[in-house]
Sequence to fold (243 residues):
Amino acid sequence: MSDVPVKPAAQADNEKPIFLVSYPKIVLLYPTFLAAIAAGLIELSLGQNDMAKHSLAWGFLWLFGLNIVVLAFDFPRTTSLTLFFLVMAAVLGVVLGATNFPDLLPAVTAFFRQIKPQANSTFYFLFASILGLIYLFVLVLVRFDYWEVRPNELLHHHGFLSSLERFSAPSLRITKEIDDVFEYLLMGSGRLVLHPSNEPRAFVLDNVPFIASKEARITKMLGALQVQLREDVLPPRGDGMPG
Fold:
């Protein structure tokens, strides 16, 4: 039989490194990216139906506007998120009322009838291609700047020459902050603040995806490490003490 000790599955999971990446906010535009692809495909099937093309353009612009608002403003509380949806619902109600009931708001109806946005499939696909190209560059660049949490150390990989900074992981303090409800809904992202021991500065990582699961894994890893360190300092059995 082999004398090599077998680690429990839970302990092995705790020892797996955890990678932390701070993404730029433009990744939150992925709903617009998907909507541009979908709109391009739908436009190909509309033929010469101008009214449907106008409705498609309005829908795309509406979603794009909502997505831009997510990037431009922070909604730290659910109350602000509720207020935002109420305002958007009111604006949408006015637009639909003016469209379906022309005599209700004649001035608004006349205004919107003059605006007939339209775009062909080439525009939608080019829009999606530009965002896709930016996302490709982002995926490449984050490979040169990320953090790695291990049971005994915190590593910062950065630079094209793979520069590496090491910090002590024991006694590492972490702070999770959800500054924007929209960002959390779109990618489960938030701010993670790392406070290494014996280090005067704190490291702030913005827009970390799936921050709740990452924070839970780090806490579990560090908690298991602290328990293991406490067990190591206990006196060995067989020293004459009862028990």
Observations:
- The chain has eight helices and seven strands.
